[in-house]
Amino acid sequence: MKGKTEKMKRNFDYTWVIVGVCFLMVLVCLGFASSTKSLFPDEIAKDLGTERSLVSIGESCRYIATAIVNLFFGFLVAKFGPRKLIFAGFFSLVAANLLYSFATELWQIYLAGSLLGLGFAWTTTTMVGYVVGRWCPERKGTIMGIILASNGIGGAIAIWLVGRMIDPNVVGTYRNAYRMIAIVIAVTAVIVLIFFRNSPKEESMGNSVQTKKKRGKDWVGIEFSQATRRWYFWGACVCIFCSGLILQGSHGIVAMHFKDVGIDYSAVMGMMSFGSVLLAGAKLMTGILYDKFGLRLAASLCTAFAVISTLMLAMVQGNSLGFALAVGFTVVGQFALPIETIMLPLYASDLFGNHSYAKVLGIFVSVNVAGYAIGAPAFNLCYDLFGSYTPSLLLVAGVMAVILVLLQFVISAAHKEQKKIENLLTEKKENASL
Q1: Domain around 372
Q2: Quick one: 270 and 418 in the same domain?
Q3: Is residue 8 situated within a structural domain?
């Protein structure tokens, strides 16, 4: 009996527990604490007797906090390990939602937004990218796609629950919704922390998933100090910043733009719901493409979809052709959004390797989130100047086309240097064996 138990332990691969834990973490943290964000600002503004624009500053506080904290992600995860940071992230998310539920002043809303940003920095894209990179190096694209697709599932569940709890005719009902979210996150935290392990080396039950190596890159990499001296590091930052600004900004004004040109509100809501379902599949597809065909194809397709979808959005009108373009944007636009999530860890690992992965990933996420913070205000400023979102959409479509070209040079330069480094390592091994 004892021998049978030991054999079962050897055959059991704890990697899949880690994948399941990450899936649950993203499903709850992003699904409940982020996907529901648009349901609250009006209710908070009415309850506090203030303007919606003042309440929305709390969202800016979230992005700023996430950007700042992720600059130090590499240092923090090396010093404390992922498990302690995940605990701190869950604690911040619970505290944020409880503070939202009791807030009576705007400064409390802003503090809650900052805590939310801290929580997301340590429980979502950056952390999951780091964990998957350690546990699943052989097929991280597909597994990242599966895990981050859970955001759509969690969002659909959370929006249904929270929407039913909030009564727009009764002031203050949103507070109970925030408390419910805090409880769900707290329970999830207990489950995640019970089963999470920092590293495969801590497990005696099995090793990380091993699969046939495909096109996705997993290599030793270069030092962070060396990475920042490469022009293509800064070129990648430019691509990531602009993509975050353009995609977050353009998708953030979709509902307003559709209504401005005369599309029925119920149709707008239907398209947005359909898009959120497609997004889960888009993330999974992007991960699979990376593993099978490599970074260039996956990144180029997502960026090309961004150019096409932004042009579609710019040309939407209130007629039948415009409605068809709106539907087209709803579909095509989802296949551009993985640039903001799954592609960030893949950029970091593929272009710069394992040695500086955590630090590069933190920088890339910070740069991306900085784009988020600027995107919405920039698009709305253009609307104030021109009375329409169309001029700004046409402009950023052109910028995305330039980003698509720049991305090719970045990937080529990085892969060229990677080949040189790998050849040198091979020569050293051969000389050492002589």
Answers
A1: 224-433
A2: yes
A3: no
Q: Are residues 156 and 301 in the same domain?
A: no
For residue 289 the two structure tokens come to: 């493409």
For 214, the token pair is 């495909």
| Co-location of 184 and 236 in the same domain | no
Is the same domain home to 260 and 321?
yes
Q: Give dist(CA 286, CA 232) in Å, integer.
A: 22
Residues 235 and 271 grouped into a single domain: yes
Tell me: do 417 and 279 sit in the same domain: yes
- Helix ranges, 209-342 (H): 224-227, 231-252, 254-260, 265-293, 295-314, 320-332
**Separation between Cα atoms, residue 24 and residue 15, nearest integer Å:** 14
Identify which of 150, 116, 14, 130 has the alpha carbon closest to the alpha carbon of residue 83. 130
**434 residues of the chain, pLDDT tens digit each:** 455 445 444 445 889 999 999 999 999 999 899 888 877 887 888 899 988 778 878 888 888 999 999 999 989 999 999 999 999 999 999 999 999 999 999 999 999 999 999 999 999 989 999 999 888 877 888 898 899 888 878 887 888 888 888 887 788 888 999 999 999 999 999 999 999 998 886 543 334 344 444 555 567 888 888 999 999 999 999 999 999 999 988 887 787 788 788 888 677 767 776 777 788 888 889 989 998 899 999 999 999 999 999 999 999 987 888 889 989 998 999 999 999 888 999 999 999 988 888 899 999 999 998 888 888 778 878 887 888 889 999 999 999 999 999 999 999 999 999 888 888 877 777 676 66
141 and 282 in contact (C-beta within 8 Å)?
no
User: Is residue 5 situated within a structural domain?
Assistant: no
Assigned domain for 213 exists: no
Nearest Cα to Cα of residue 329 among 298, 299, 307? 307
Closest CA to 243 of 170, 154, 158, 307: 307
Residue 400 lies in a domain: yes
The 8 Å CB, 24+ separation contacts for 91-94 are 91/119, 91/189, 92/116, 92/118, 92/119, 92/122, 93/29, 93/33, 93/119, 93/120, 93/123, 93/182, 93/185, 94/182, 94/185, 94/186, 94/189
Domain count, the chain: 2
Q: Are residues 241 and 186 in the same domain?
A: no
Query: Of 170, 202, 234, which residue sits at a domain end?
Result: 202
Claim to verify: residue 328 and residue 419 sit in the same structural domain: yes
